[in-house]
Write a structure and sequence with these properties.
Layout (H helix, E strand, L loop, with lengths): L6 E4 L3 E5 L5 H7 L3 H6 L7 H13 L3 E8 H6 L5 H8 E8 L9 E8 L9 H17 L3 E7 L3 H9 L3 E6 L4 E6 L6 H4 L5 E4 L9
Helix pairs in contact: 1-3
GO molecular function: N-acetyltransferase activity
InterPro entries: Acyl_CoA_acyltransferase, GNAT_dom, NAT9-like
Keywords: Acyltransferase, Transferase
Length: about 210
């Protein structure tokens, strides 16, 4: 999605940055994990296919993707090269999809992946998800959020339900449950985004304060 091409979203623990070409190799390395592919219902792709997917996601009007950076790693890294700092701080990604026929973007399907095991269970996923939903609510006009989660993904089920998502359907065929956060309940995103801040950048990294 071009809407977030030059947008950085800052929180307390994380920075959300647009998914760029220089992130692809590390992202591809994550997705070589059979466990992650199963948890995210993803297919295994070659590196070239991953580069192609990144390009398609950037150009698609229906998908907004951010790479999640651990803010402390990014700030403390001694690399002057911004690209190297970003790669070193990468811990996951967060996405929102919109039905292609819904030009209003009223309803979006959100996904979150914390790929780095060392930061799981430390609130990175919760903050990243809430930052994404707040960004979508305030900048893309999204009112209702849904998520499809596999039966076996207990961590994601717990995360979404703890934020007020309610089950609206389940598929035994695909072994997944669909959860929804109604518009009336979306104020929960403010609870976990007290330090929310957006920086619009050109081609350089923002100064993290």
């Amino acid at each position: 999605m071009r809407d977030n091409e030059f947008v950085w979203v800052r929180g307390t623990k994380v920075l959300l940055v647009p998914y760029e070409k220089h992130h692809v190799q590390k992202y591809h390395g994550w997705m070589e994990s059979e466990e992650l592919r199963e948890l995210t219902a993803s297919e295994r792709l070659s590196l070239e296919e991953e580069y192609d997917m990144q390009r398609k996601w950037r150009e698609s009007p229906d998908k907004c993707t951010f790479i999640i950076l651990a803010r402390d790693r990014y700030e403390l890294d001694t690399f002057e090269d911004v690209v190297q700092r970003e790669i070193g701080a990468m811990v996951g990604d967060v996405n929102i999809f919109f039905p292609s026929e819904d030009i209003s973007r009223d309803e979006g399907e959100v996904e979150i992946m914390i790929a780095d095991p060392s930061v799981r269970g430390k609130g990175f996923g919760r903050e990243s998800l809430c930052l994404m939903m707040r960004y979508a609510r305030e900048n893309l006009g999204t009112k209702t959020f849904t998520s499809k989660i596999g039966f076996s993904n207990a961590a994601s089920l717990h995360l979404f339900q703890s934020l007020g998502f309610k089950e609206i359907s389940r598929s035994d065929v695909f072994e997944e449950v669909t959860l929804q956060l109604e518009e009336s309940a979306t104020d929960v995103v403010f609870k976990f985004t007290e330090n929310y801040h957006i920086e619009s950048m050109s081609k350089s990294s923002p100064l993290v304060k």
